[in-house]
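Hi C.,

You asked whether I'd gotten around to modeling the 318-residue construct. I have! Everything is below, sequence then structure, no commentary in between.
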Amino acid sequence: MGGSRVDIGSKVGQVRSALRRRIVVGVDGSAMSLAGVEFIAGLDLGPNDSVVIATIAELGQDRSETEAAFEQARRICERAAERLIELPCEVLTDVRLGHPVDQLRRIVLEEPTELLALGPRGLGQVTSLMLGSVTQSLLAEMPTSILLARPPVRRLSRVLLAVDGSPSSLSAAAAMRRLPLPTEVAVAVCVSVTPWTDEYAFLARDDIAAERRVAGAIARRAIDVLGPRAPAPTTVIRHGDPRLEIPLAAGDVGADLIVVGSRGVGRARGLMLGSVSRDVAAAAPCSVLVVASPRVPEGPDPESVRPEDGDAREERPR
């Protein structure tokens, strides 16, 4: 009973070594946890991709209780996987016994995984995948990029990419470029001006115009990384704590998804994420993708960004 993998896809037979993306979706039987399934159903996945629906069952007091929990988890997994039957890719179920953080981490690390999708909270009938506990632990460890799908889930039409010029936030742009988003998705790039951090420390105090030029240069760097993924991006410049400004910007532009990196730059390293990513995930009005830190995209060091890089293109939130 260490694990169960069942292929229920109607179009399978792809060689695993040829897969482009592997996505793991954690479910626990609650309506909230199914938000991750619905989100993945809306992506433009291809026949070489793979989706794994994972459920973690708790160990019971005795063998019969454990077997009953495992069987319940298996049914939950299969019902969730049935929602993805129309996808053109392989759909698998994976049922494990144990602690959800440990088991989900193992599933993610067993093979290269593009992202782990979770709902914001669950019931706890199998093992709860709650933002306050399991998801927070996974966000702290970041075994891979983590998608927190918040209902109601609808087909993506607008994405807010939050960047601060750090390698991690630019990696978020690179990850977004790889994400199989619908082709009609509009992209807004958000930079929150934080005068107390290193990126702005060289500026004269209260030089708002210079701060905005630095923010604009940061946004343009992210847009360059996005490339054709964002043919007509807009730039949103905010002032203040990104923990507050990113969710507010998402609401202002009507975003269906926020994309952020898992680390940032600043006087306290990790300003952009770490604590910020968890706060954004908790406060966001929509789904959030936290991108695991990675190899650094090519380009100038963020410390080389200076006001003379030009004026910011800006879209004022309405």
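If it helps when you're writing up: Residues 63-82 form the longest helix (20 residues).

Thanks,
B.
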